[in-house]
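Deliverable D5.2: sample structural annotation.
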Amino acid sequence: MVRISDKAITYADEFKKLFIDQSMVGKLPREIFEGNGFDVNVIGMQRVKQLAERWRRAYELSD
């Protein structure tokens, strides 16, 4: 995590890359977030799912 405010969380590029790498080997978004110290009950599962979709799309477009 890079920054957190009342309205947004800014995630480090390193975490996004780690997320994509772990996602590609079958880990679920919840597992990845929790395994890296995030509380998905605070963040919200809907937000985690949205982030996962956004980061996967960005990864696919960068190839």
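Annotation notes: The longest strand covers residues 3-4. The chain has one domain: 3-62.
The annotation will be released with the project's public dataset once the embargo ends.
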